Fold this sequence. Notes:
Structural class: alpha/beta
Shape: elongated
Radius of gyration: 28 Å
Distance between the termini: 37 Å
Strand content: 15-25%
CATH architecture of the largest domain: 3-Layer(aba) Sandwich
Helix content: 40-55%
Amino acid sequence: MEDIKAILVGVSKYLISGCDPLPLCINDLVAMKSALVRGLNVKPDNLFVCGETGIVTKDQLSSLMRNVLKITNEEDTFLFYFSGHGGKNCLALSDGLIDLQKLIDEIASIKSKNKIIVLDSCHSGGFLIDSIPKMDINDMVEKFAGYGYAVLASCGAEENSGFHENRRISLFTSFVCDAITSRFLIKEGKKSLESINEAIFHYADIYNKKREQICQQPIFRSNIGGTIFFNVEEYHPYKAEEVYEETDRYIIYRVEPVHHARMKRYAVKVILRFHSSPEQIAEIASEIKSKVLYCEVYRNEISQEYYSGKAANIIWCFFGYDEDDMVDGNYAYRTTWVDEQQNKEWWYRISRDTIIISDIHIQSHSSYEIIKSLKENNIDKNELIQTTRLYTANMITAAERLINTYREHLNNTIDEEQLIESVIPINAEISKWYFKQMNLPIPPIELKEWAQVHINLSCAIHDLSIFYDRRNTEIWEANSRKWLMKNAIKQYEIELEKLKRADRSIQEITAENQINR
Length: 517
């Protein structure tokens, strides 16, 4: 069972000289506890608070850590939160100092698959992360994505942390609580650590712009592959209707909604049972048009509500001769039918490969046979799987290096010019593996969806390499580059999660191939 186990530490009273009392740190504990329950659905029994009396000694913290780790499983997320005094590479407990880097390293070694450390103290940003995640070709993505540890700190190594003057809690803690509880961050029932951290930086940026004399720069470093996704509410995806029909002459393989603006439109994939003439294609397309005209297939509830009960305005039919053609998108013919409200001169344009028969616009694809022949390769399925995984693993490793370098720019430890210079070799590495991935043979039908997920991930990673390529610096302003990069990172993390699911399905195919050998 996957749970979040959290230790919340707030030190308000000190028995050592040089440390003034911090009475508001007790309020931090209350705020964080509430935020974790409300925002991430952490079970109250999995929240372990240390410091409700104001006192936290080394022995108390050590004892609590041991006890919590006994009940922490490998699939759990372990969260450690600290609020109190801090110094250069140290945190202050009531009876003495503890080494910050040593604490981080100890938490990093905990057996749970991922660890989150949140530090709200002065000078907390001086820590180091021991490594950048590297994808092992011999491991499934499931053993990479979401594994590792991340540290969120309230300020840089030379900065001080403060309190929110209106809310009577620490400033950084207020940002963390607001991000954790924000419903705007929920996507498909989940919140990600990436989106939470982005919100924290956004809140800090707004606050700092209002108070330029006293600024806190949050710090975020991570060696987690991708990010962590938290399930925060039930998600019921919209399920589109599926249309499949077999006749003596053809099979309606799928009806896909491509509605746009005020037009109800369908793309129908059709498998022909026999080689057909243009006249026969026109007859079949007209018959399918009558069947699909009042079809009720939609991508989402909003589309269904708008178009339900209406006749289609445009219907395209894509004709092939087997399921491979449907999956590969390789079609011998494409037909177009539009109703009388449409501009037929536009939709029924004549060219060398087109003809109009009985109000059906037919386009033949002369490249159909050539593309079909490209699939006639003898590559072994296991070899294709291993090669695809090798290229993807190298791209993922390069992507994580790039993202970690970019994060240091957000942390204000390097400027944009240093970032651009630093990512030159990483961008070259990404491009090399990207083009290798794009030139792989067309996969057999049973590997098609899995291979497409790899391609989508490769495209997302390639996007990461664009925005801070020196050749592109004149295209976007600095703020636009940041916005584009942040969204590209989130898309990369989404595609990485999709690959986790796809990899599970490929295990069955790999096992079957081994048996057949």
